[in-house]
Each structure stands twice: as C-alpha cells, then as structure tokens.
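can u pls check wat happens w/ guanosine-5'-triphosphate
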Amino acid sequence: MHVQNNNSDTICAIATALGRSGVGIVRISGGKAKELAAAILGFTPKPRYAYYCRFLDNNQQIIDQGIALFFEGPHSFTGEDILELQGHGGAYVLNALRDLALSRGARLARPGEFSERAFLNNKIDLVQAEAIADLINANSQQAARSAMRTLQGEFSRQIHELVQRLITIRVNVEAAIDFSDEDIDVLSDTRVVTALEEALGLLSRTLKQAQQGALLQEGINVVIAGKPNAGKSSLMNALSGADSAIVTDIPGTTRDLLREQINIEGVPLHIVDTAGLRASEDVVEQEGVRRAYRAIEQADRVLLVIDCAELQEPVENLLAPLQLLGDKAEDQLRLLQRTTIVFNKSDLLQNPPITPHPLVHLGLQLPVICLSAKTGLGVDNLKQHLLSCAGYDGNEEGSFTARERHLRALENCQRLMEKAALGVSKHSLLELVAEDLRLSQQELGTITGEYSSDDLLGEIFASFCVGK
Ligand SMILES: Nc1nc2c(ncn2[C@@H]2O[C@H](COP(=O)(O)OP(=O)(O)OP(=O)(O)O)[C@@H](O)[C@H]2O)c(=O)[nH]1
Ligand SMILES: [Mg+2]
C-alpha cells in the first residue's frame, strides 16, 4: 500500500467553517497530539473523556475556555492520537488555537489529510473516504442517505463479496491449469459457469445501485436551446421557480449562458439557458450562439424549445436550429438521442395536445412535451420526463453514493467477467480466462483502494475540505 513519507508529521486544522458560530473546532492528529494536549490544557487528558477547561497559550494566558477531547490511536478517526479543541466559533480564537499548535511543532493539514490518514491506517477504505466528502457535499436528503450507506460500508461489503467469489473461481481455474494432465476439466465443470453467472448477477445489481447513487450525487446537465423568443428563459424560470433569467418579447434577449441548479426528487439538475439560435450580424450575439452550441455538445439532455405556432411544421424545419444537416450521421444521431422537443406557449392553443406523438427523424423517435412556461401547465410533466431520461428509478433506498471512477471500474469488471464466461463456454485457452479473471479482480481493487496510484489518491483527497 502507498504510504506518504510525511505521514509522521503532526497535522492541525480548523475543522469547522470559518465565520461566527457558537462552537468552532480545531483538530490535531499525530504523534505530538498528547504532548500538545498537556501544554495547552495544563494536564494530560484521559482518552475519550470530555473536559471543560481552559486553553492556554505559550505564556499561560487563557485563549478560550471550552471542551477538550483526546482520542488515543489506534482508536480514533485517523488511527493516530487526536486532540480536538472545541472553542468559541470566531476567527480570532480558532486562528490562535491553530497557531499555538503550529508553534509547538504541528503543521497545517492539507485538504482531506485527516481522511487520507484514516485510509492509510486502514480505518476506512477509499470508497468510504470518498463518501465522507460526498456526505459533506450532499444537498438533498436522498444524496446524503446514499452517501451514508457507502460510509457505513454497504458498497465496500458488496465489492468484497464479489472479490471473494472471484477468488474462488480463480482458484478453480488456476488449479485446472496447474493440473491439466490430471483429470480436472474445469470447462465441463458447471460449477465454474454457474459461479461466474451468479457473480455477474451480483455485479450488475451493484452497478445499478452505484449508478443511482452517482446520479443523486452528480445529477445531469440539461441545456435549453431553440430559436429566439421561443420561451427558453421563461422555461428556465418555470423549472427553477425563480426569476433569474431576463424575459422580454425582443428576440435575442439572452446573450450568455445562464446556469441554475434544481433538485427533482433529490436528483440535481444543472440547467443552462442559452442564447436563441439564429444567424446574426451582432458580434455579441454571435458569441452567445457559439456558446450555446458548445453547451449543447456537452449536455446530457437538450430541450429544444419551439413555439407552439410551429406545431404543424415538418420535423426537418423544427430541428433546423440544431444545425444537424452539416454534421456526420453518427453525430446527428448522438445529438438526437439526447434531445426532447418542447412545444411552448400551449396556453395560446385552443386544444393543446395532452400527450403529443413523438416526432420521428433518422429512424429515431424524439420525445415531445407540450407545455406553457407562462402558466406552468405541463412543467411537472417535463420534470418527470427528465428524471426518467436520467435513468432515476425513484428508489433511493437501495442506492449508495458512487463516483464516475467507481462506475468505470465496475463496467470494466463486468466486461472482463463476461469475456471470461464466454471463454469458458467456448472452451478457450484457460490461461486467457484466468487472465481476464485476474484483471477483473484488480478493477474491483481500484474501487476500495487496494490498487491505487499515488496520483489517484492525491486527486481524490485534494478535493476534500481542510480539516476533514
Ligand atoms: N403566451 C405565452 N408567452 C410566453 C410563454 N413563454 C414565453 N412567452 C413569451 O415569449 C417571449 C419570449 O420569452 P423568452 O423566455 O424571453 O424567450 P427566449 O427563448 O429566452 O428568447 P431569447 O432569449 O431572445 O432567445 C416573452 O414575451 C414571453 O413572455 C408561454 O408559455 N406562453
Ligand atoms: Mg432568453
């Protein structure tokens, strides 16, 4: 396992947010924590006792009075000795306590360094460490609960179970290679095939739960695009319930990208309003349109907003603002697969279609939604549609927070195991099957941190806040 060479330093950080609050916490972890406790408190605290006492500076002046807690390693969050000083939550007191620890040999902790030490000392694995950051960043109950499930080890438990199953299968396959002269024929042994199928079933359930968790954590990017005056900014305001975008009847009102985040059933939607798509002589507008196309390229879902007055236009005309025609067929398809047609201003129609038929282009069915950004009629429909496009199954109960890198590792593992299963059924060389199984186990190891490069660890912990 990777060990940082400065792991022996004693680290210190203000663990609470800066500002004014009732309580603020300074945290110290490492070999000098006990000695620092004796100096600051004037006595050596017993582990796991709460002391209401004075915090003294190097001249025995009182900085503050509060609660001191001492945890002796390995029975602490980091696995090292930890001193926690809970003082009054103001900048002066907390800075003074931190500086005092620094003057007595501690150094400032890097972001996430406490969690990194907990990982390096085997108190938690990598997914659990990441779940701490996800829990702190969670802004919905669903996201917080799925982060908590990972933190409590649910994700790790499933990964370990998969690893155990893979080890058993590998032992059988390796034995068949080693004793190939003898009478062990693994390929006709249905146990290996069944075990692989069962493991694949478990893996696909884990992947599904992880996808739901990742969705709750990261959400999807939705870009509102269309011709000027179609009502894009009005739709942005209707979705967010705020009056953030300027709406006027002058075509070309929106010039720049405007971003809002909303939560639908806990799934974060990052919504982008864009400039109306049209050819323009105006340089500012031209730049706005360029930015709009760039946003469309990066969107998970594009809402192509069209005025209901164009309801009867042929589909080619309706899609024209997306400039599909100049692109390659596969690019067009990729964009269309991410596109929903939104007919807006339905309040101006006598009989607005309640469930409009999908429009067909290049053999693809494009979903169509009819709504009024002005009255709000149909906007809930659009929200449910976006949730289903995102793949959210509404079942937060079973999900656990996961990141893009976990999903990638699980998908790689799935691919390798399927290849191994195919190898067994086609009586391929056992050595090849064994290698695929070895690699699939390694993929799982990257999730929990058994196989991780220093770069990856650095990247993960650098995104944490200081003091965690
Ligand atoms: N009747 C009706 N009018 C609407 C509706 N949505 C938008 N409008 C009107 O259409 C005009 C244009 O609305 P915007 O939201 O500014 O349109 P936009 O697509 O953002 O326009 P640009 O930013 O210029 O590209 C305004 O006068 C809105 O009041 C709707 O659902 N019904
Ligand atoms: Mg606008």
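The chain has 15 helices and 14 strands.
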